[in-house]
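Hi R.,

Here's the chain you asked about this morning:
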Amino acid sequence: MTPGARRALDAASALFYDRGIHAVGVDLIAAEAGVTKKTLYDRFGSKEQIVVEYLAARDERWLAFLAPYVENATTPRARVLAVFDASRDWAGVNSAKGCSMVNAHAEISDPAHPAYQVITGQKAWMLALFTGLARDIAPRRAAKLGRTLMLLHEGALVAHGLRIFPDAIGRARDDAAAVLREASRPTAAADEKRR
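And here is the predicted structure, written out as tokens:
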């Protein structure tokens, strides 16, 4: 990526997150980046492609941020809670307005938009992550537990962005810990075997 294209993507990323995708035009991105519209179109082809690259780059940064939290956790339960810890730390620095994917989906709900697959793909990946981690805790109920954990996580991201109450992600982490304790109880395991 050329320096001008990099500046354009950085400017677009900040503007899209702060102001919203539909509120930001190519003229504003070019002006903020100090490049011409021609540079933008030569590199990206369209505003839609800039949106795709903004979301894909943000997702790559999130995955790189998350990985050491999960990898350094030593138990199945700790790995699940590490996702919430990573999200809280990430949100404190990168997501004052909530999850960029959720925010983007509020503006892009058409499956034909090229960014739609990035948005839904990221959430599908998160569900797969929680389900995989849940498998180590309650193998027969991994799908249900994974969905529950994802609902707690995603709800916390939305509540964080809306500033509904303080430390939404930390509270969701506490609720996830309670769900995991319940899923790990011997009676839960016995009930699971009977099913």
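One quick note: The CA atoms of residues 188 and 194 lie 10 Å apart.

Cheers,
M.
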